[in-house]
Design brief:
The chain is an all-alpha fold. It has 6 helices and no strands. Helix 2 runs antiparallel to helix 6. The radius of gyration is 36 Å and the shape is rod-shaped.
């Protein structure tokens, strides 16, 4: 024989009917619950804001560190190339030697860092002044060396032009790039992060 649904729900209805509902009619009950809901919403919002600030700070620090590493590597490569060019100028362009001998003693500059930077988004965060200056320096230097090897330029004239390029990069570009790196280090120190000093690794080049 099927049991009627009303028979099953009758005890529940009676229990609800006999329950004390005076608390639901109290304004304090509703105010307390509203305050609890409001506190929960505010807590979630503040937690989200704190998380967002931490994420932004982490991205900023990461960007500063990457920028420091790239610029430090760039300046090391540039200084190595300057040394090679200085030795090339003194040992070969100061002598009357054939274009073939100049080709055999090409300074063979390194462009590993410079080329790798083209694939890195961090490069776009480096001020254009440095990128354009280094690009122009390498372009001019390669042009001078090529024309010296082809005897388009006499060795003495090539030496003079190369010396001008070296003086310019040593007096302006290098000091300003070093200053820019120091500024990055100061910004990182504000976050209690000290970058390692590799200045003595390659003989303390400055």
């Amino acid at each position: 024989m099927p049991i009627k649904f009303s028979v099953l729900t009758r005890p529940l209805k009676e229990k609800i009917r006999n329950s004390d509902h005076t608390e639901l009619k109290s304004s304090g009950f509703w105010i307390g619950h509203l305050l609890m809901i409001l506190a929960t919403i505010i807590g979630v919002y503040l937690a989200a804001q704190a998380g967002l600030k931490q994420a932004i700070l982490f991205d900023e620090i990461t960007s500063l560190q990457q920028g420091h590493h790239v610029r430090s590597a760039l300046i090391d490569e540039l200084q190595d190339n300057i040394q090679l060019l200085t030795a090339y100028k003194e040992n070969y362009l100061s002598k009357q030697i054939s274009g073939q001998e100049l080709q055999q003693n090409n300074p063979d500059l390194s462009f590993y860092i410079w080329t790798s930077m083209q694939q890195s988004p961090v490069t776009l965060e480096i001020p254009g002044y440095f990128l354009n200056g280094i690009q122009r320096f390498y372009r001019n230097v390669n042009d001078i060396i090529g024309k010296a090897e082809q005897r388009t330029y006499a060795a003495s004239h090539a030496r003079k032009l190369l010396d001008e390029q070296l003086q310019q990069v040593n007096s302006t570009l290098l000091p300003q790039l070093k200053k820019n790196i120091s500024e990055l280090e100061q910004r990182l120190l504000q976050h209690n992060i000290r970058m390692p000093d590799y200045s003595g690794v390659n003989g303390g080049q400055q």
